[in-house]
Amino acid sequence: MKLMQTSIPDVVIIEPAVYGDERGWFMESFNEEKFHAALKTLGLAVPRAFVQDNHSCSAKGVLRGLHFQRAPHAQGKLVRVVRGSAFDVAVDIRPDSATYLQWVGVELNDNNNRMLWIPEGFAHGFVALEDDTHFLYKTTDYYDKASEGALHWNDSKLNIQWPGSDDYIISEKDDKAPMIDSLPVTR
């Protein structure tokens, strides 16, 4: 497993070791001991244990996000695509962070097998780049409706460079999400 820090050092791309031969391929998609050791090597905090797995399937052009949960149910997420392709985005919404309101975007797909570690304190979203895109993620806390929050995916203050057209398929709830200025704590 190879970890690479992004322009926001707390958000990490994970490239698992993939072993292939004429039969196909094998990879270890998660190993807590190796994950924690690799994070520590980078000087990053070890997350709480993963307690929930989620799986979504999206058509090409579906944009989901930007979602987060507030404390005491904030979630760290380990995300990956097992079929199709998605452009995955993490936005730092930690007011005291040096990278506050910066974002990172990474393509995750069933060819590169990359994963993205997004710690607590980030809003998260993605757009499916292919039909039948299956997105999996582990979370460090359970979903809690009272703690959920969202930011508008196209907030000009965030200036996220979403790929593809502007003709995304977006839920009414996500399209009505507030702008960053509506967050209770801003600098």
From TrEMBL:
InterPro entries for this protein: RmlC-like, RmlC-like_jellyroll, RmlC_Cupin_sf
EC number from the UniProt entry: 5.1.3.13
Alphabetically ordered keywords of this record: Isomerase
Gene Ontology, cellular component aspect: cytosol
Keyword Isomerase: yes
Top-level taxon of origin: Bacteria
Sites annotated Participates in a stacking interaction with the thymidine ring of dTDP-4-oxo-6-deoxyglucose: Y143
Active site per database record: H67, Y137
Quaternary structure (record): Homodimer.
Biological function: Catalyzes the epimerization of the C3' and C5'positions of dTDP-6-deoxy-D-xylo-4-hexulose, forming dTDP-6-deoxy-L-lyxo-4-hexulose.
Family: Belongs to the dTDP-4-dehydrorhamnose 3,5-epimerase family.
The protein's name in its UniProt record: dTDP-4-dehydrorhamnose 3,5-epimerase
Organism per entry: Pseudomonas silesiensis
